[in-house]
Specification:
The protein contains three helices and ten strands, in the order E-E-E-E-E-H-E-E-E-H-E-E-H. The chain has 185 residues and is α+β, with helices and mostly antiparallel strands. Strands 1, 2, 3, 4, 5, 6, 7, 8, 9 and 10 form a ten-stranded mixed β-sheet that branches. The longest helix has 20 residues. It comes from Thioclava kandeliae. Keywords: Hydrolase, Protease, Viral release from host cell.
Length: 185
């Protein structure tokens, strides 16, 4: 499912992620986007796609919004840290306990009733590869939402922290799956 509002696109993550979404005392962290894995719409985010946007936001002193289900009228927390690494776009922040929807989100996350992160962005630069997939090379990130139904099946975000060994196991599986897809197997 892809939604578009005024040029803003929403993509979600679901499946096996190298680092799960973690929640502890209202603090959450995880990968909001993974490089090299096609989503259900055939889009693939390239490493560095967020670099210019994140630099611009830092320079302007602005933050990416944390929303509930992409609803711009329902901010539920604050992303304190967002950065790119070799895996994707990592986010770390906290839910605002004084916001009713944030308390609901925390309860759902802790119970395992929801486990998705999703990004809202505008495409700045993209191209099609020989297989017809759209390769997203530069994105203007607007928001990262907690969602019920993410878009990228191969990248699961979990609501509870896993031991480090389990995280590394998920990373290894995700890398093998990506390598297999790239090799056409």
């Amino acid at each position: 499912m892809e939604q578009r509002i005024m040029g803003l696109e929403f993509k979600s993550l679901m499946g096996e992620a190298p680092a799960p979404l973690r929640i502890r005392e209202g603090r959450i962290e995880g990968y909001a986007s993974l490089y090299g894995l096609p989503d259900q719409g055939g889009d693939v985010v390239s490493p560095g796609a967020y670099t210019d946007c994140l630099a611009r936001l830092a320079q302007e002193g602005r933050r990416v919004a944390m929303l509930w289900q992409h609803d711009q009228t329902q901010p539920i927390g604050v992303w304190e840290e967002i950065f790119e690494d070799g895996t994707g776009l990592f986010v770390r922040g906290y839910l605002l306990e004084d916001v009713a929807r944030a308390r609901e989100a925390r309860a759902l996350l802790e119970a395992g009733a929801m486990d998705g992160l999703s990004i809202g962005y505008r495409v700045v630069r993209a191209h099609r590869d020989p297989q017809g997939q759209r390769i997203l090379t530069e994105l203007d990130l607007w928001e990262v939402s907690l969602v019920t139904f993410p878009m990228l099946k191969e990248a699961r975000v979990a609501a509870k922290a896993m031991p480090l060994g389990a995280e590394l196991s998920h990373l290894a599986r995700a890398l093998r799956a990506a390598a297999s897809q790239l090799a056409g197997h």
